[in-house]
Amino acid sequence: MVLKRVDHPSSLMTNFLRRCGSSAVLDGGLATELERHGADLNDPLWSAKCLLSSPHLIRRVHLDYLEAGANIIISSSYQATLQGFEAKGISRKEGEALLEKSVKIACEARDIYKERASKGVWDVSATRDHEQAPIWVAASVGSYGAYLSDGSEYSGMYGDGVSLDSLKDFHRRRVEVLAASGADLIAFETIPNKLEAKAYTELLEEEGVEIPAWFSFSCKDGANVASGDPIEECAAIADSCEQVIGVGINCTAPRFVHQLIQSIQKATNKAILIYPNSGETYDANTKEWVKSSGVSDVDFVSYVKKWREAGASLVGGCCRTTPNTIRAISKALSNN
Ligand SMILES: C[S+](C)CC[C@H](N)C(=O)O
Ligand SMILES: N[C@@H](CCS)C(=O)O
Ligand SMILES: [Zn+2]
Question: Binding positions for Zn(2+) (predicted)?
């Protein structure tokens, strides 16, 4: 009898990091980079609008991040929800195809990158210590607050009508489709409260999702996620789920990150991932970013080595970071 060897989810991350040279580079802001290239995201679907209007641009931005040294690229499904598509008159079936398309575009970018790298079109050694390092495609699942399109992924206040069960119902089919899309893992991003983290752990278990996942929280300060729930408690929920291979922070001001890493470490030994935004604040009414007063976070690349020493092993950027940010992070991590 031949026994199928099934890797424990945590060993997938350990092996991935080893092959990347102990730490990995994540990509940078996808939506804001699409905007920088002229996409208009002033729409309830935000970046998912580009799945309909400009898939070629999504592929190009993925490629730019790979060329900058990213080991993981995150698909354009952050705000792609079946409910959001339905509100636009897009059928459930077409919506599911769009979710699959977001992963397909990222996989295509990876194939193009590999082909160009193998032909020497790009000097891979300029951005990668380990030329044979793997590249993962992460399927993004933005929070319920992202779908609401009112910026509530930065408040975590979903109201009394939203329960554990309603969150599970909201996300269930999307998670199922993305889990079977060919992605290497699911990136649950910008999670603003404990309730949604709990909903994701239950969904992963109930649906028997076979690919691993990471949980990444949006935080309001150095100790708490956006809703005010302690990050330590949120990380403990992630820690309780075997399928989760990384826990971290995204779309959060860089100035809070160091303390957040220390708090996460108290709750879990899973890999810690960090991809902050530029430190600016998002105005959901105008869908624009405004400078935060009295703080300067812009050049967070200078903190990256300290975050690595503090225990983060995957670092990248979120909104308003660019391929240049990722190139600089890649350089900072490769000098370890
Ligand atoms: C991470 S936020 C900048 C995404 C956009 C937001 N959900 C909106 O629709 O306004
Ligand atoms: N992966 C998403 C996160 C938005 S907070 C993006 O970069 O657009
Ligand atoms: Zn972001």
Answer: 251, 318-319
